[in-house]
Specification:
The chain is mostly helical. Helices cover about 55% and strands about 0% of the residues. The longest helix has about 40 residues, at about 145-180.
Length: about 230
């Protein structure tokens, strides 16, 4: 279906872009916050997530020497940051998309990715917290604050991506409702089989002129039949 201006919670296609109004949108603010949280997580893990001992120059992850913990945090952080940039650009160009099918797929992609990353951030928070609880204090020379920051903002990311999931679901629901209203069957109207002309009643009907009924003359008798 073409020409779906206003569908899926966006303005009609072809409208002018207002930066102030765009930034004030809830999903845009939540996306910016999520990008900042993701940046902090992977920056802390890349910068101070690896350390080494004095007698052994080999780097190891400060989360209980578990390389998977650092890799997991860096991986979901980088992908989340890139996804925020991508969907931010989608939000910018979304009102210019006139095809409602394209809008539907983009909203579904946002919905699915936000739901998945909400779950992954929850797993990441639990994973990093568990590994940090098993980390020995003598193994952490530097980077303790960065490790705590990564855990903290992983926790915050659960809620920021949960908000993105909620906003994406609302946009999808709005699009489905608009689609249902556009294609709803009109209610059948009861109509009479024959409509009468206005301002004409049956009582006012008169016999048309120059019309006479054939009547037999008085006293006339038909001839007998033999």
């Amino acid at each position: 279906m073409e020409g779906g201006g206003g569908a899926y919670g966006a303005a009609k296609a072809g409208g002018s872009f207002d930066l102030v109004r765009f930034v004030q949108q809830p999903q845009v603010l939540a996306r910016i916050v999520s990008a900042v949280f993701s940046l902090i997580v992977f920056a802390c893990l890349i910068g101070d997530g690896y350390t080494s001992e004095a007698e052994n120059p080999k780097l190891f992850c400060i989360f209980n020497h578990n390389e998977d913990a650092c890799r997991y945090g860096i991986g979901i952080g980088v992908l989340a940051f890139l996804a925020c940039i991508f969907f931010f650009m989608v939000d910018v160009y979304f009102p210019q998309i006139s095809n409602t099918t394209d809008r539907k797929y983009l909203v579904l992609a946002d919905l699915g990715f936000s739901g998945l990353w909400t779950f992954l951030w929850f797993i990441g928070f639990c994973f990093l917290t568990n590994q940090w609880s098993w980390t020995r204090a003598e193994d952490v020379y530097i980077g303790a604050d960065s490790a705590r920051a990564a855990i903290t903002f992983s926790f915050f990311s659960i809620f920021s991506w949960g908000l993105l999931l909620t906003f994406a679901y609302k946009r999808y629901k709005m699009g489905v409702e608009d689609f249902a209203q556009s294609y709803a069957d009109p209610s059948p109207e009861v109509s009479t089989p024959y409509s009468s002309y206005p301002n004409i009643s049956h009582e006012s009907y008169q016999q048309p002129p120059f019309t006479h009924t054939a009547e037999a003359p008085e006293g006339y008798q038909p001839p007998p039949v033999y």
